[in-house]
Amino acid sequence: MKSSLAIYRRLLSYTRPYAGGFALALLGMVVAAATEPMLPALLKPLLDEGFVNKSGFPLWFVPAAIMGLFIARGIATFTSNYAMSWVANHVLVDLRRQMFSRMMRLPAAEFENEASGLLISRIVFEVTNVTGAVTRALTVLVRDSLVIAGLLGWLMYLNWKLTLVALALIPVLSGVVVVYSKRMRKLNRRSLEYTGELTRVVEEAVHGHKVTKIFGGYAHQSALFERTIDKLRGFAMRMTVASAATVPITQLCAAAAVATVVTIALLQSQNDQTTVGGFVSFITAMLMLLAPLRHLADVNEQLQRGLAAAEAVFALLDKNEEDDSGPVRIEHARGELVFENVSFRYPSAAYDAVTDLDLRIAPGEVVALVGASGAGKTTLMNLLPRFIEPTRGRILLDGVPLAEIRLSDLRRQFAQVAQDVVLFNDSLRGNIGFGSEHAGDETRLRAAVDAAVLADYVRTLPDGVDTSVGERGMRLSGGQRQRVALARAIMKDAPILLLDEATSALDSETEREVQLALERTMRGRTTLVIAHRLSTIERADRILVFDKGRIVEQGSHAQLLARGGSYAYLYRLQFAGDAKSSGRAGAADAADAAGAARD
Fold it and tell me: Is 70 exceeded by the pLDDT of residue 297?
């Protein structure tokens, strides 16, 4: 764990691009702080010359000086607050921009290992505590430290003996701050963790509301929420105790110091060692000293909260991005894929998901991947765009190892349709053209909509392709979402297609239409297809049968059926199931017809 000073220095480095605004804020703090000791300084001549000696002291001087003093302080305070807020908001934007950029470039494994709620909490909530440490805490530290220095200077000028008594307060307060700093840092760190956990719980409850309703999971979700907020409340109360304890300790020390100073001042007054004006000025300055001292004690809580948040923010910023050191550029690949002794094992897994895979896929070849769940099909798909890296071996695209190809160029060669469709809270147009260099091409857009069998649906919409699909595409049916994903893949016009159960959410009639469109799209493109419905891959050039991460059979549909192996068994099993379902449906139809005849 880095020291507080190291973290704070790193935070301050983000203010360098805004040095002008930062300097203006500091200047405002200096001016505002300089006005503080001037008020008790005015009291001494006012009392000694105006009330005690009555020496013809000009009546207008003190009121004019007080007005001028507060006008100067007001302008300086406003300037300081505005400039510091300007810097803080720019730093906040810079941090969020860097965090979001780093998050989007993290390896896929990081998204699987870390809850999305924690990532959201860091970017949305925790970073605001960081800017509080950089700006608001710094404002208190600088301004109030200068005020203390100015007041102490005036106190030393008035009466150095009494000032030494007042100075005895500072080591005590410093000790209090040191004792509570470590505890506050630890409590704030845990509090931020539970804030992220709360974000995760609420996010899951929102997105899983249908599952909660249908399975009656209210009690479970409510109990989870209650446990999380109760833990958060506990840490909040511990932080309150830790921070609130500093206030009475500070006040007790101040009361002891004031009592001692008053006693000594009375003794000095009896010996004519001080004047009324000097005594009132001293007491006023000393009482004014308490507020900045208390602010310095209170700012520790905010500072520790900011430093704890900064640790989480910098932990994200310091994560390694995806390796993108490949020097090779590719504009448009031919589509040849070669796997050379490729193996992959997920972290903490007991065995490889893909084992010793040797495979060559020719340009334009349509290859189907078949096998039980967990056999390694999706893992193979994820290896191609380098969402994951092989544990052993290498993969080549057009004879070039994937690791040597620039990531953006590599991924431009792929279009993917996954079983779990991801749509954004945008229009149909925005989702279909997402990330495509052809996004503004209306002809391509219409062709993609037609190819994905979306045209009839789009015509029913009041705004056509400019109609919003809602959050995660929730305004669309499952089949419509899948067709939008297909249109997006078609729009990209990539040389390699990755289709993972791309038609699983479609009805039989629409599936046939989409299948024909896909066959047209696949022409001239290397295509990898995962499909559990074997009838959809009968026309594939080659079918690979996976079992426990290995290819156990490969060949065309006819060849594999003739061989009578694993594929033939799966096909017969599925065909029998389909026939049985059709038989049940046929019997039901016959019964309905007989009933109608009787009626």
Answer: no
State the pLDDT confidence band at 118, using cuts at 50, 70 and 90. Answer: confident
d(CA 471, CA 378) in angstroms, rounded, equals: 26
Higher-confidence residue of 125 and 555: namely 555
Give the CA distances from residue 86 to residues 28, 138, 299, in Å, rounded to whole numbers and listed in that order.
14, 14, 20
- C-alpha–C-alpha distance, residues 536 and 521, integer Å: 15
Closest CA to 87 of 161, 11, 151, 148: 11
Residue-wise pLDDT for 130-158, tens only, equals 877 667 777 787 888 888 888 888 878 87
Closest CA to 481 of 464, 469, 495: 469
Q: What was the pLDDT predicted at 166?
A: 67
Start-to-end CA distance of the chain, whole Å, equals 82
Alpha helices in 398-504 (DSSP H): 407-412, 428-432, 442-451, 455-459, 478-492
The residue with tokens 């026309």 is: 539
The answer for residues whose C-beta is within 8 angstroms of residue 529's C-beta and 6 or more apart is 366, 367, 368, 369, 499, 502, 536, 537, 540
Residue 243: other Cβ atoms inside 10 A: 20
Quickly count: other Cβ atoms within 10 Å of residue 34's Cβ.
16
Both structure tokens of 574: 């599925």
Strand pairing report for 354-361 and 337-344:
antiparallel
Distance CA 498, CA 519 (A): 13
Scanning the structure block, which residue is given the tokens 């052809």? 438
The continuous run of DSSP H or E covering 166 comes out as: helix 160-167
β-sheet bridge partners, residue 579: none
* DSSP structure class, residue 388: S
Per-residue model confidence (pLDDT) at position 594: 38
d(CA 247, CA 242): 10
Residues 6 or more apart in contact with residue 5 via CB below 8 angstroms = none
Contact 367, 361 (CB under 8 A): yes
What's the CA gap between 333 and 345, in Å, rounded?
28
Reduced to 3 states (helix: H, G, I; strand: E, B; else coil), residue 107 is coil
> 17, 25, 258: which is closest to 141 by C-alpha?
25
Contact 591, 582 (CB under 8 A): no
The amino acid sitting at 416 is: Q
Residue 353 pLDDT exceeds 80: yes
